[in-house]
């Protein structure tokens, strides 16, 4: 049986397009956009503030009133998207900030991530995983939707491999279970 959240973000009900094979242009290379003094850590805020800007439309895979899914500007696989909750819906900086009261919004985020992954799989892309990094390098909270080929010129360092193939990559079911059991994520920050 499908929950209301799952059915809301099912592949048949969403206008997901085909994944663009052309690598996206990192936002700093788009005319009129500058990364602020806080640097890369907060670049996602530019998308939220400028989501209607014509220059960003090719960078956005999907958006609605709660979420935005963008092409990763530095993809670590052939197919790499980032799902971000809008701050008005879920305002969390990092996974360690998540609490039990965020579960409802988080489940909606996970349902959308699964629907996007399913849509990509139906395009013949192969295995897709979704999850978040235990210690992300960027803010706010965001989920990776990534093919498992890891075929990318951006996959340059061992840490790039490790953040997607070890327990540093937190899967939705684990996150939800920890929040239900403990009310927060018990993360080993030494990962």
The CATH architecture assignment turns out to be 2-Layer Sandwich
The first-to-last residue Cα distance is 36 Å
Quick one: CATH superfamily? HIT-like
Taking pLDDT < 50 over at least 5 consecutive residues as the criterion, the unreliable ranges are none
The beta-strand count equals 6
Assigned CATH class: Alpha Beta
As a whole number of angstroms, the C-alpha radius of gyration is 16 Å
* Number of contiguous helices: 5
Q: Helix and strand succession?
A: HHEEEHEEHEH
Integer average pLDDT: 84
Helix fraction bin: 25-40%
CATH fold call: HIT family, subunit A
Estimated structural class: alpha+beta
How many strands, which pairing sense, and closed or not: the largest β-sheet? Answer: 6 strands, antiparallel
Strand content bin: 5-15%
Structure description:
This protein is an alpha+beta fold and 191 residues long. It has a single domain, classed as HIT family, subunit A, CATH 3.30.428.10. Helix content is 26%, strand content 15%. The chain has five helices and six strands. Strands 1-2-3-5-4-6 form a six-stranded antiparallel beta sheet. Helix 3 runs antiparallel to helix 5. The chain starts with a helix and ends in a 9-residue tail after the last helix. 27% of the residues are buried. The model has no long low-confidence stretch (mean pLDDT 84).
């Amino acid at each position: 049986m499908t929950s209301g959240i799952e059915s809301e973000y099912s592949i048949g009900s969403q206008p997901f397009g085909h994944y663009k094979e052309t690598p996206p242009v990192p936002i700093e290379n788009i005319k009129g956009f500058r990364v602020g003094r806080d640097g890369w850590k907060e670049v996602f805020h530019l998308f939220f503030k400028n989501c209607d800007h014509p220059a960003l439309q090719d960078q956005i895979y999907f958006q609605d009133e709660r979420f935005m899914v963008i092409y990763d500007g530095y993809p670590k696989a052939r197919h790499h998207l980032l799902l971000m909750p809008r701050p008005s819906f879920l305002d969390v900086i990092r996974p360690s900030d998540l609490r039990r009261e965020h579960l409802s919004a988080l489940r909606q985020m996970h349902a959308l991530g699964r629907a996007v992954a399913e849509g990509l799989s139906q395009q013949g892309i192969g295995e897709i995983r979704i999850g978040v990094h235990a210690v992300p390098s960027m803010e706010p909270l965001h989920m990776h939707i990534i093919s498992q080929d890891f075929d990318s010129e951006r996959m340059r360092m061992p840490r790039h491999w490790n953040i997607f193939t070890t327990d540093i990559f937190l899967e939705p079911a684990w996150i939800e279970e920890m929040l239900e059991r403990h009310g927060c994520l018990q993360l080993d920050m030494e990962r």
